[in-house]
């Protein structure tokens, strides 16, 4: 498993549209992707789970990737977060 922390910089946080795009990105990989905030972990491939976490600008989350190409997938998701969220 590969994990990294990310602090949301986008004004919208992970609500509605940005959450949908993030979930779509996570769904594009067969690896298991989870998001953790304040000790609560959810499946990053489930939109309502992400939205219900109420991740706002400035919140720190941990993204974990588990699977055969976890390092490469984690790097791609991290780059996506930096450029989009």
What's the helix and strand layout?
Layout: E1 2-7, H1 16-27, E2 32-37, E3 40-43, H2 47-52, E4 60-66, H3 70-84
Antiparallel strand pairs: 1-4, 2-3, 2-4
Helix pairs in contact: 1-3
What structural keywords apply?
Histidine-containing Protein, Chain: A, 3 helices, alpha+beta, 85 residues, 27% strand, globular
Could you give a short description of this structure?
With 85 residues, the protein is α+β, with helices and mostly antiparallel strands.
Fraction in beta strands: 25-35%
- Cα radius of gyration in angstroms: 11 Å
Main sheet record: 4 strands, antiparallel
Number of helices: 3
Read across the widest sheet, the strand sequence of neighbours is 1-4-2-3
Distance between the termini: 23 Å
Describe the structure.
The model has no long low-confidence stretch (mean pLDDT 96). The two termini are 23 Å apart. The chain is globular and about 35 Å long. The longest helix has 15 residues, at 70-84. Helix 1 runs antiparallel to helix 3. The chain has a four-stranded antiparallel sheet, covered by helices on one side. It has three helices and four strands, in the order βαββαβα. It has one domain (2-84): HPr-like (Histidine-containing Protein, Chain: A, 2-Layer Sandwich), CATH 3.30.1340.10. It is of the alpha+beta class. A hairpin with a 2-residue loop joins strand 2 and strand 3 (40-43).
């Amino acid at each position: 498993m590969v994990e990294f922390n990310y602090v949301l910089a986008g004004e919208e946080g992970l609500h509605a549209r940005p959450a949908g795009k993030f979930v779509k990105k996570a769904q594009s990989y067969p690896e298991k992707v989870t998001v953790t905030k304040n000790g609560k972990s959810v499946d990053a491939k489930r939109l309502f789970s992400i939205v219900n976490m109420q991740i706002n600008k400035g919140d720190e989350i941990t993204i974990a990737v588990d699977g055969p190409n976890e390092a490469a997938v984690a790097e791609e998701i991290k780059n996506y977060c930096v450029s989009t969220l």
